[in-house]
């Protein structure tokens, strides 16, 4: 969890923990009731967004079930302050205890510059899944542009990779194909590129997956490797 996002979440938790409802005012007058519902709803929507971003999907779902508020602030606060906030505090403590050190400049200098430009700001903001998705979208888009320029037609995803890197007639050749070793290299990377599209890019883009920081760094490194390998084409 990045320091900026951790502080923002902590401030939001404190605001909700200290949120007090004047029951007489709330139930006696429709105008302040509407204002309170709107104000509390905004804070809960922000909290649900944080929970979703950090992969706490059950808590995000619990919050979403409380919305929209319709004269139900008292019942909602009971659920939020009695269950959701203590659970989030517990999870935050676990993250702080178990968190890995942030990647050093060495890591980001090692990453392919186009992947770094997209992944680093997202990762440092705590959006690990978005960092991974952006990295593999860049891999796909890079191959897609080269393929379109070379072949004059469009392709995408795993199908693009299987065609572009095919050992039979590659558009992007990564090794000399007159030896078994070269053909194996070409075949192997074709499968890695295609597998990355099917197993990493597509689930992240379509399934709203949320890897933790450690897994995200592994996946960003893989995207970097694929971009670097593309630069080595012969």
Automatic annotation (TrEMBL):
Residues 111-227 form the Conserved hypothetical protein CHP02391 domain. This is TIGR02391 family protein. It comes from Marinobacter pelagius. The lineage of its organism: Bacteria, Pseudomonadati, Pseudomonadota, Gammaproteobacteria, Pseudomonadales.
């Amino acid at each position: 969890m990045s320091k900026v996002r951790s502080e923002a979440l902590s401030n939001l938790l404190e605001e909700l923990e200290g949120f007090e409802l004047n029951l007489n005012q709330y139930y006696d007058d429709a105008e302040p009731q509407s204002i309170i519902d709107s104000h509390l709803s905004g804070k809960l929507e922000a909290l649900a967004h944080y929970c979703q971003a950090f992969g706490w999907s059950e808590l995000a779902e619990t919050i979403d079930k409380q919305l929209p508020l319709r004269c139900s602030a008292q019942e909602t606060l009971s659920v939020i302050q009695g269950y959701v906030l203590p659970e989030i505090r517990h999870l935050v403590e676990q993250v702080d205890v178990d968190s890995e050190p942030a990647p050093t400049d060495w890591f980001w200098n090692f990453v392919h510059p186009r992947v770094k430009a997209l992944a680093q700001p997202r990762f440092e903001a705590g959006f690990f899944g978005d960092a991974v998705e952006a990295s593999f979208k860049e891999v796909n888009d890079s191959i897609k542009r080269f393929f379109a320029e070379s072949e004059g037609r469009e392709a995408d995803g795993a199908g693009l990779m299987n065609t572009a890197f095919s050992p039979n007639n590659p558009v992007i050749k990564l090794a000399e194909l007159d030896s078994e070793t070269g053909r194996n290299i070409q075949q192997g990377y074709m499968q890695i590129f295609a597998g990355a599209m099917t197993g990493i890019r597509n689930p992240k883009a379509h399934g709203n997956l949320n890897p933790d920081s450690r897994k995200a760094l592994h996946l960003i490194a893989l995207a970097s490797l694929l971009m670097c390998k593309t630069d080595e084409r012969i």
